[in-house]
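Archive maintenance. Older records in this collection stored only the sequence; we are now back-filling the structure field for every entry so that each record is complete. The fields below show one back-filled record exactly as it appears after the update. Entries are processed alphabetically, and Spermatogenesis-associated protein 20-like TRX domain-containing protein is next in the queue.

ARCHIVE ENTRY
Title: Spermatogenesis-associated protein 20-like TRX domain-containing protein
Organism field: Williamwhitmania taraxaci
Length field: 672
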Amino acid sequence: MPNKLILETSPYLLQHAHNPVNWFPWGEEAFERAKQEDKLVLISIGYSSCHWCHVMERESFEDEESARLMNENYICIKVDREERPDVDQVYMSAVQLITGSGGWPLNCFALPDKSPIFGGTYFQKVHWQEILKGLNLTWRNDRQKVERAAKELSDGVASTEIIKEKVVTCGSSLKDLKLVAEPWRRKFDREFGGWGSAPKFPMPPALEFLLDYAWLSEDSDLKQHLFFTLKSLSEGGIYDHLGGGFFRYSVDREWKVPHFEKMLYDNAQLAAIYAKAFTYFGYADFARIAKETINFTLQEFQADNGGFYSSLDADSEGVEGSYYVWSLEELAAISGDDFPLLQQFFSLTPSSSLDGMINLSLNREFHSGVHSEEDSTRLDNLKAKLLLVRSERKKPSLDIKQIGCWNGLMVKALSVVSRHLNDPNMLCLAEGTAHFIEANLMDENGQLSRCLTSGHRSGLAFLDDYAFIAEGYISLYEASLEESWLLKSKKLVDETLTSFYDPRGGMFYFTSKEQEVVVARKMELTDGVMPAAASSLGHSLLTLSHYFFVEEYDRLSMQMVSNLKNQLSGAGPYTANWSRLLLRHYFEPVVVIAQGDNYKEVSKKIASIFYPALIFGGGQLQSKIPAIATKVVDSPNNLFLCTGKQCMKPMESVDNLFVELELLKQGKASGR
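Back-filled structure field:
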């Protein structure tokens, strides 16, 4: 007999629909039942591709004794964190306050009024049953103790990830940026790339900051380490050398053994970063990685409606990574006479972390050498053979939620790859994804929804949905020069000012004023594997201020980064997108407008250089964008270069423009 989750559309919730646990979906029905039956509430949060979520389900949620204890003593709620990131944010804060760390599955116990009292992440079955018994006993015998704990913990949750009072806005300097970079530099892993120790995450917002800061500072050491990191990621086992795309993170320091989830958000962001890195470093393999990563998302995640699904599971047939790993005997049998070449190209050392199996990573010494065309052909044929054999295995399950913010990241990724690799097909795909968002996640009143699952639109959008889609539309404008996308981006940003902005703190809440408040209305201030929603919005506000001459946008963007400025030094990757926003305010965006018949050709030439401070626009003389409409002269083809409120005399030569851009950069790099 299935539980109430059988009526849901989330693949994660449906995975638990046949557990013996009487799961409820998140909603008032569950909390009313808890009040009526005088029970505590268990809120269990995860996502469909999470390996340890599956482990705890098998060990505890499918176990009859554990289920009996849960059903008799608690009202049990299952939450898909990707559908309800607001619920996840609140109870993750609570668990981090209790334990000092977090992760998934996230299991948090609460009062019937939703106040958290105790929690953790993965629990082994014996420990889980002890907690279920002990907490219920305390609830029955010492209720005041439980209620005091709930009050203290709720107060703690309400005081984290929040800016209550805005600070005085302040400018930015090169010194501020050095205060971010230098403590971070001391944590660089010089042997294997990245920073810190295992587990290691790529953390795309951090990579993007380092890319932009290396460009501005001309710091050769940082530039070299960034190149080494990007190369190490693309050569390691965290990258799928047969099917393309990146796994979620590495369990070891060397990037060899990953957790095998594949997430849309990782691959969207990393494809864009590798495309930009190709332009910056001129290293052809980075362009290949960007293309292969996009091709992976198209093959595995793109739906018929033009949008993108969410993730591929880490597990297949109940075993993590079994779809991707090999025995030495398998590899030898498939490659035949070419096995020695396979041994040269790939590192084929069995891993104890994988029960003696092999996850393919490149033999870096061989890969960095010069190879004959014949060897390259043989290697391509070998990889095709292995991919064919792998495709006959049972594939990991696909989460078919189409999430607004993650599709916004794909619009940006496809647009960036289109520009930096000069690929018109990528632009068509970016436009198709944007049209999917407009047709499927936006209602007739312009209200944005969180996600689409099996044709069912669910939930009001959160700040990350508005922010990432707005930023995606700006990138799409830069690639296509179709003004409608810039106007749509502005409309989304204006909606955030109406529904999410807190004038007292000078920041944006993660939930809108129309949405449920769970324990406390919170903000998202730190970056992780995705940028903090507000930091993404800060970038869009800064960019749009220069297109539309709205000084209030620029002021709001500067206010937000000023609020966080004292936290940036030493926070490194955890505030990287805020630091990149600080960098953009320091540099002050350089606006280039191309007018006339050849503006699209000029756009292609400008995309051939790496200049992250650049805001580009172009078109004929009639325009709804003030930055373009105000640039009118008699010459048929003109380039306008503006900084602040001043514009240079119109230019007709792109080469002259490049000279002026380099002079501006050198001035800022020296602190002038």
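Update note: Residues 566 and 656 are 39 Å apart (CA to CA). The first strand starts at residue 23 and ends at 25.
Entry marked complete.
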